[in-house]
Every structure is written in C-alpha cells, then in structure tokens.
Amino acid sequence: MLPLAALDALLGESSDPHNPSAAEIRRLFERMRRLAVVGMSRDPTKAARRVPSYLAAKGYEVVPVNPHAERILGSIAHATLTDVVDPVDLVVVFRPSGQAGAIVDEATTRKERPAIWLQEGIRADPEAARARSLGFLVVQDLCTYKVHRALYT
Predict the structure, then answer these.
(1) Number of structural domains, the chain?
(2) Which of 55, 65, 57, 66 is nearest to 28 (CA)?
(3) From CA 59, how far away is CA 91, in angstroms rounded?
(4) Which CATH number goes with the domain that contains 120?
(5) 69 neighbors 42 (Cβ within 8 angstroms)
(6) What DSSP line would sit under 87-149, residue for residue?
(7) What is the pLDDT of residues 127-142, one digit of tens each?
(8) Can you give the pTM of this predicted structure?
(9) Shortest CA distance to 65 belongs to which of 95, 37, 103?
C-alpha cells in the first residue's frame, strides 16, 4: 500500500473526522524535528514511553514532560509544557481526555505555534476546535507510531 493510502486508512480509524489530511500529516512529519511529549512515562512497558522511544530512535528529538520524573531517555523531564523553553515542532499528548484540553490550550500559547497531537483514544473536542480556529494543526485519536510506520516502512 502506498504511504498516503496507508495513512488514509489510519485516519479512517480515528474518531475525529476533522483531523488533517494524510498529505498535511506527511508534511508535518517531514518538517518536525523536536517533540514535547506531555505525559511521557518512566515505565518502558507503557505506550507513553514506547512510542516516544521509537520516535527518538527514528531521529526525532524528544522532550519529556512529566512532573514526576527528573530524566527520561537521558533527557531532562519538564514539569509542564510551559517549562519547555526551546521551540518544539509538535506537542504530543499522552494524558486522559479529561486532562488533554488544558494541554491543548497551553500549547496554543506557545509562540512557535507547534502542531498538537492527541494520541489514540484521546480527544478534547472544544479545545481542538478552538486551536484549529486559531490556525493550529491538531490531530486527535491517532497514534504517532502507527502514522510513522505507515509513512516510512
């Protein structure tokens, strides 16, 4: 299957019909280099650790955001997204849907205007709609690992 066709199939599995197109997501993956991962886990058995580890192995710089950790994957962990001072291209959210909206809102205050990605099973519809109305690229209920695999394997 061609990469965009595979990605289109994944997009069809997401519960958010307002996600960007496969072509827009591919462009994001082509330009992004630095990701802040909110809710990154210290536990290597959890998806919130395995997915960022995979992305780091693929050459992306992963910035952990976890108030309960000092370091993850050898990088300093930040307590909040606001504590990440260097620009990021993407904010990846691994927090429950009930907490994700506040993170989406926090991401929209960043001057570099990063894309915002809520992992599979996570939605924050009002905040995502507001962020999209401000011109942010927002993805909900989709796994960055699966998308990367669809695009690059």
Answers:
(1) 1
(2) 55
(3) 16
(4) 3.40.50.720
(5) yes
(6) --SEEEE-S-HHHHHHHHHHHTT-TT--EEEEPTT---HHHHHHHHHTT--EE-S--HHHHHH
(7) 999 999 999 999 999 9
(8) 0.96
(9) 37
